[in-house]
# Entry
Amino acid sequence: MFHSFTGCDTTSAFFGKGKKSAWEAWNAYVEVTEAFNNFMNHPYMTVTVNCKQFQLLERFTVIIYNKTSNLDSVNEARRELFSQKNRPMEKIPPTQEALLQHTLRAVYQAGIWATSDQCEQKPPTPEGFGWTLESATKTWRPVWSNLPVASQACSELVKCGCKSATCGGRCSCKKAQWKCTELCSCQCE
# Structure
C-alpha cells in the first residue's frame, strides 16, 4: 500500500515528492502503518474522507509536505503553506478531494497486489476507485478530482505583481488572457 500510495506504474506520485520523502514521513508518523495494513488486509475496502484510514493517510500526506506541521487536514496545510509560507502551488499537497481519488486508485492497485496469490483474481470494476471508463475510446482514465477546475472557479483570486499603473508584456494576468482584478497592485481595468 505504501508503494501504490506514494506512486507506482499505475498510480501517480506526489509532485516533487519521491519515495525518500515518503519514507522519511513514514518514519516520522508511524501511526499511518495502521492504515497501510488495514488496506492490505481488506482489499478493495470502501474509502471515504470520514473513515479513519483516510484520515491517517491525510495526516501522512501533510507530513510528506511539511514534517513540522501539526495539521491533520491537507486543505488546511495547503492554505498555510501557500499563504503563510509562500510555497508555490506545485509544492503544496493536493486538495482533500484529489487525495481521496488518489487514495482510491492506490487502494485498487494494492488490492490487486494483496490478492495476487489467488488462482483466479476477481477484482471489482475500477469505476468508483478513482477511475472512469471513457465511453468513446473504451479506455480507463483517472479521476483527478470532482471539484471544479480552480482556474475557472477562482479566476477572481488571481493577481499580478505589476508595479506600474499600466500593465506591460510581463503581466501574468495578460499572459493568461484575463483582466486584472481588484487584488492586482497595478489597478488596471
Summary: Helices lie at 2-5, 19-28, 33-41, 52-65, 74-84, 96-114, 150-153, 172-175. The longest strand covers residues 131-134. The beta strands are 131-134, 139-142.
